[in-house]
Amino acid sequence: MLPRRRIWVLSGYALTLMTGIAFAAPITNPWQQEQPLPIALGTSGGNVNDASKRFCCSGTLGALTQDSSGNQYILSNNHVLADSDMNANTGSAPFNDDVSQPGLVDVACSANSSNSNIVAHVTNWVPLRTHNVDAAIAEVVPGDVSGSILGIGPVAATVATPTVGEAVAKSGRTTQLTCSSISSVDTSVKIRYQADCGKGRKFSVIYTGQMTIGGSSFSAGGDSGSLIVDQATVQPVGLLYAGSSTVTIANPASDVLSALGAVNPSPTKFSFVSSGAPTPVSCPAAATLAPSRVSEASLQRAINAKRLHEKELLNDDAIVGVGVGASSDNPFEPAVLIYVEQGRAFGHIPDHLDGVRTEIIRTQAFTAYGWNEPSRQSCRAN
């Protein structure tokens, strides 16, 4: 008999609360199961100390990176590997903390040699609010981690610049392999965090220059840390870290690599590790979307208009994001996309900004935990 657990998705993790006695339900999702060594990435994982008295948390081990000396690291989010607000100098630093696969939430909050592998040790992280990304790395245990991503395979070593309408894919703990397209670029967003696993103060971070991906099925809490790649070239495009029920938020991959180099104790450059020849991602047929046809010149005009007015727009508490994409009714026409939190009143939003049309998108608040998930999920056997 094992304690019954109800699962919340928090800080990009599935979060488990002890509530009673029941048999544990078997896990049938390969992304949440223990992987044979060397593990495939895009799977469940996290810091083994990411727990409190009542909760434990996990996310996704996203991709394999290396520094200029050839040392290899698992890439994920700050809030998956380094516990969100260690950046505020609270608590003890997680240097050298063990990273397990699967994460705590998929092994009944207790990682041990019989149900998981210690595959890496937390090495460094980018403090939130400092370099415009949510990223951390953990140095791999030699021989324990492959550069292949479950459902995707090897990735390309070179990164791609996000573009509106670009077809992308990701592999993550909760929703597995999913595909969609980039809805907006150069997007400024307000992201909600919580300092610790299931407890602690809540706070917000504003990011600029982000990318959003559309579709309610593209991601959910627990997918934080997933690498987003171009469907055709399998080039890294972004690092998933937050979302809502209809929108996924990611840092551009090039910004993540630059930030990791900037916080490294000694000068170095980071790159993605390719474990073989990439092949185009095989996506579900339902994921096929019509591409955007916005010209580069008109998109740049929209970006200029957005940048001129975004500060004023984001001063409205109900507005959670401002980006640039294609108009919903005309793939040739750019628009300034204004994300407004559902159920909240907002101030005047003009139909056009400097000649560029605006489009209001209603969504839930953007969070690094609990998006696109039921508030509670029982994992007891029925």
Structure description:
There is one protein chain. Helices cover 9% and strands 42% of the residues. The chain is built from three helices and 24 strands. It has an eight-stranded antiparallel beta sheet with strand order 6-4-9-10-11-8-7-19. The N terminus and C terminus are likely disordered. It has a domain of 150 residues. The longest helix has 19 residues. By secondary structure, the protein is mainly beta.
What's the layout of helices and strands?
Layout: E1 2-10, E2 13-22, E3 39-41, E4 43-47, E5 55-56, E6 59-61, E7 63-66, E8 72-76, H1 78-81, E9 98-101, E10 117-125, E11 136-140, E12 145-149, E13 167-172, E14 176-196, E15 199-214, E16 227-230, E17 236-243, E18 247-252, H2 253-263, E19 271-272, H3 296-314, E20 319-327, E21 330-341, E22 352-353, E23 356-363, E24 377-378
Parallel strand pairs: 3-12, 21-23
Antiparallel strand pairs: 1-2, 1-24, 2-5, 4-6, 4-9, 7-8, 7-19, 8-11, 9-10, 10-11, 13-14, 13-16, 14-15, 14-20, 15-18, 16-17, 17-18, 20-21, 22-23
Q: What sort of overall outline do the alpha carbons produce when their principal axes are compared?
A: globular
**What share of the residues lie within helices?**
under 10%
Q: What count of helical segments does DSSP give?
A: 3
What is the H/E order? EEEEEEEEHEEEEEEEEEEHEHEEEEE
Structural class: mainly beta
Largest sheet: 8 strands, antiparallel
Q: How many strands?
A: 24
Estimate what percentage of residues fall within beta strands: 35-45%
Radius of gyration, CA atoms, in whole angstroms? 20 Å
